[in-house]
Q: What sequence folds into this?
């Protein structure tokens, strides 16, 4: 009797498991069918987009608020998230009788947008005032080209009260210090260097005593530590080059090298987060210094003693 009951129980459990399996299998098949349907719809849509793009003329004349601009189909399609890609690929945007594509926008800043599409490089906007930059940003937003300004860099400076910063343009900030304490102090730019490749330029206008440029470990910025650059110089957390020809590496203290920097020099900085390598190039002398094994995330940093004046400008 016991064996019979156990057998019956096992059968019921098996039936329950079988039913459950069949239900799960049916749901899985439904999802697979839905995915296949969506894939087919996507393929049809992609084929339609390609067909619409083929129909577009190779040379495109744009009429922006009454002013004409000539470009190519390839240029206008270079950014897939842009207004132009959406319109040209839709098949619904047709030229007027005169062969031009009319857009009812102010043409004042359109050349900046078109050059960005042509080169793929962020334009130099240093000639524009803050008011004009805002106007250009509105136009870039309309055309879905906001990335021409970049969203990976900041001009915000974290520093001691003796250090002042002034934004010069969309990508450039002036930093001036007047510390008379005789100590080494740090100044941070609040761009978190965590992924991708960052490039920035430092123009050294003047410094009276000592200057170091590079990046710093994130904990120094988060804890707002400005004055830990002290003997025996093993806890500074920096990866940088200094004006007295020393290389500074967070865990390894410092070592002498022949890389020079002085007032009047222009320094190009590049940090590849993928390889964790900081490259510093003195464009005035063509000298170059490479610092490997940079601990990430990091922040741009300068260390100074006494008065100084520099500009920091984001390149990419």
A:
């Amino acid at each position: 009797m016991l064996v019979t009951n156990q057998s019956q129980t096992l059968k019921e459990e098996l039936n329950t498991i079988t039913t459950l399996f069949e239900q799960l299998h049916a749901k899985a098949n439904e999802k697979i069918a839905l995915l296949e349907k969506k894939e087919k719809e996507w393929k049809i849509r992609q084929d339609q987009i390609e067909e619409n793009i083929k129909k577009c003329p190779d040379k495109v004349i744009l009429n922006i608020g009454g002013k004409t601009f000539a470009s190519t189909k390839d240029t206008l399609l270079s950014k897939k998230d842009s207004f132009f890609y959406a319109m040209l690929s839709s098949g619904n945007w047709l030229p007027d009788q005169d062969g031009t594509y009319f857009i009812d926008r102010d043409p004042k800043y359109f050349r900046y947008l078109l050059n960005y599409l042509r080169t793929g490089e962020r334009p130099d906007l240093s000639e524009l005032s803050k008011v004009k930059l805002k106007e250009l940003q509105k136009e870039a937003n309309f055309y879905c080209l906001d990335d021409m300004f970049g969203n990976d860099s900041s001009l915000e400076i974290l520093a001691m009260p003796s250090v002042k910063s002034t934004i010069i343009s969309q990508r450039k900030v002036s930093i001036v210090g007047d510390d008379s304490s005789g100590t080494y102090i740090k100044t941070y730019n609040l761009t978190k260097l965590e992924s991708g490749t960052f490039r920035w330029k430092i123009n050294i206008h003047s410094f009276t005593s000592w200057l170091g440029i590079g990046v710093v470990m994130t904990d120094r910025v988060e804890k707002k530590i400005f004055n830990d650059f002290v003997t025996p110089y093993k806890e500074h957390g920096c990866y940088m080059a200094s004006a007295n020809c020393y290389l500074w590496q967070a865990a390894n203290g410092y070592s002498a090298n022949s890389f020079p920097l002085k007032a009047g020099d222009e320094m190009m900085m590049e940090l590849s987060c993928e390889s964790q390598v900081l490259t510093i190039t003195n464009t005035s002398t063509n000298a170059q210094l490479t610092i490997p094994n940079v601990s990430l995330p990091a922040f741009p940093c300068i260390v100074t003693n006494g008065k100084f004046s520099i500009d920091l400008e984001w390149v990419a």
Summary: The longest strand covers residues 197-207.
